[in-house]
Every structure is written in structure tokens, then in C-alpha cells.
Amino acid sequence: MLKIHITLHSIIFFLIMGMILNTGCCKREPEQTRAYPTRKSQQPMVERRAHSMINRFSRDVNLTDEQEAAINKIKDEILAKQKEAREEARKNRDKLKNEIITLVKSDKIDKEQIQKILRNEEVIREKREMDDFLAEKLLQIHDLLTPEQREKIAKKIENFKVKNRNEKN
């Protein structure tokens, strides 16, 4: 359940970042320095992908400097919240593992005990909190964009859907 929880939030995050932001908050010339450190270990993959998506988005919809700064701030908030959620998920996974080990070692297993572990209320609550947080950020991004920019994004999403549907067939 925790993997599904993390995966769902990753998908939501990348949809928001990829489809809505889909580029970057840094307009830079090719001769300028790199947007992220050269050594991959210095910056997590999620951050590099988010930065790349935001750069592309910025180019595609012609964000103003103010929009770029605001979207970059939202991106950083999302990344921080996701990092916090991943750490919490790790703790929950360890707790769940220990509960399962204890249950397996016991002489008798009750169906209610198994269901209690599977219906982890804490995980469900955290998922709802993250969903609410991401929805709030999506609204903030939407409010930052002009109708023309939203139209460009809608067309990109449409093309993305069509392209992926064609590749699957």
C-alpha cells in the first residue's frame, strides 16, 4: 500500500510538474552555467527532472520573470513536501514491516488484525493531505497563468495524450 501511495504521489507530482509546469523557471543562454551540479550524486534525480520540466515549460508558454519566480517557489514547496512524505513513508513502511513480523510470529492471526494493518489509517490520512496540498499548488499555478498560457498547456496535454495513446496501439 505504501508503494502505491508513493507511486501515486510521484505520478501526481510529475503530472503537475510535467504537464502544468513542463519547463523551467530559469531562462538561460546556452553559454551560461549548468542549472544543476555536474555530479549526479549532488542533486537527486527528482530535483533535476523537476528543474528540467520547469525550464521546458517556461520556454513553451513564455512565462514572465514574475511567473517563473512564483512557479519555481511552488516547485520547491512541492519537492520539500514530497521529500518529507518519502521520509514519513519510510518510517511507516518500517512500522508496517514490524507489525507484520509480529503478526506472523504470533500463534494465532486474526482477520481484523490483518485488515487493520492493510487499512493503515495514517497512510490514508497522509495521502489525503498530500492530495490536498498538490491540488492547492495546482490552483496556485493555474491562477498565475494567462488564458493564452493555459490554452497552450491544454494543447500540450492533449497532444501528449494523443501521442501516448498512439504509441500504445
Task: Summarize the structure in words.
The protein has 169 residues and is an all-alpha fold. Helices cover 78% and strands 0% of the residues. The protein has helices spanning 2-21, 45-61, 65-105, 111-118, 121-144, 147-168. Helix 1 runs antiparallel to helix 3 and helix 1 packs parallel to helix 5 (121-144). The longest helix has 41 residues, at 65-105. The radius of gyration is 20 Å and the shape is elongated. The two termini are 30 Å apart. The model is unreliable at 19-41 (pLDDT under 50).
Give me some keywords for this one.
169 residues, mainly alpha, 6 helices, 0% strand, elongated
Shape: elongated
Helical amount: over 70%
Report the order of strands and helices: HHHHHH
Rg value? 20 Å
* Share of β-strand residues: under 5%
Individual helix count? 6
Main sheet: strands, sense, barrel: none
Return residue spans where pLDDT drops below 50 for at least 5 consecutive residues: 19-41
Question: How is this structure best summarized?
Answer:
This protein is mostly helical and 169 residues long. It has 6 helices and no strands.
Question: Which secondary structure elements does this structure contain, and how are they paired or packed?
Answer:
Layout: H1 2-21, H2 45-61, H3 65-105, H4 111-118, H5 121-144, H6 147-168
